[in-house]
Amino acid sequence: MENKEYELATFAGGCFWCMVKPFDEQPGIIKVLSGYTGGHKENPTYEEVCSETTGHYETVQITFDPNVFPYAKLLEFYWQQIDPTDPGGQFYDRGQSYQTAIFYHTEEQKALAEKSKQQLQETGPFNKPIATKILPAKRFYEAEEYHQHFYKKNPTRYNAYSQGSGRVAFIKNHWGEKNE
């Protein structure tokens, strides 16, 4: 199943549990991994990342087929999973490790991310500045196994978390039912 056409996209959107399911359900998405990137600590653990001492973000790394789900479409979908105006984290998860960021793997991805961010600022449903950073991709460290596809392993806890954090209501309020 090796395909040289596959590409990587890496997004930070707060708690990675809530970032896997939306992408996992899209056509052309080959794999979604929870993990950590952007920091200085090699092989960080979840506890270390949450301690805010590693510089890492909780992220998802997506392997995708750009012929089915192009990167520009991934970006559009990404914006609809987060509050891009919150510089302090996402919903009730606070701190640098929960901030939003797009980690680009190529100059083309960087250009598309910057264009997408500008369009969202100019035409999106927000009246505050877009706080999401656009950063070069660094080494990605896969999170512990119990974090992978958490929504499948612990659906009750996942649903309570995504609802209770305010994420589901925010998405519904800003983007409508289609992204629920």
Task: Describe, in plain words, how this protein is organized in 3D.
The longest helix is centred in the middle third of the chain and has 17 residues, at 107-123. The strands form 2 sheets. Strands 7-6-1-3-2-8 form a 6-stranded mixed beta sheet, covered by helices on one side. Strands 4-5 form a two-stranded antiparallel sheet. The protein has a single domain (7-175), classed as Peptide Methionine Sulfoxide Reductase, Chain A. It has helices spanning 17-24, 46-50, 71-79, 107-123, 150-153, 155-164, 167-175, and strands spanning 7-13, 29-37, 57-64, 89-90, 93-94, 100-104, 133-136, 141-142. The protein is of the alpha+beta class and 180 residues long. The protein is 34% helix and 22% strand. Helix 3 packs across helix 4. Belongs to the MsrA Met sulfoxide reductase family. Residues 9-159 form the Peptide methionine sulphoxide reductase MsrA domain. InterPro entries: Met_Sox_Rdtase_MsrA_dom, Met_Sox_Rdtase_MsrA_sf.
Proportion of residues in β-strands: 15-25%
Which fold name is given in CATH as the topology? Answer: Peptide Methionine Sulfoxide Reductase, Chain A
Distance between the termini: 31 Å
The chain-level structural class is alpha+beta
**Helicity range of the residues?**
25-40%
Specify the number of helices. Answer: 7
Integer-rounded radius of gyration? 15 Å
Q: How many beta-strand segments?
A: 8
CATH C-level category: Alpha Beta
User: How many domains?
Assistant: 1
Q: Low-confidence runs (pLDDT<50, min 5 residues)?
A: none
Taking the sheet with the most strands, its summary is: 6 strands, mixed
Task: Give the SSE string.
Answer: EHEHEHEEEHEEHHH
Give the neighbour order of strands across the main sheet.
Answer: 7-6-1-3-2-8
Q: Would you identify the CATH architecture?
A: 2-Layer Sandwich
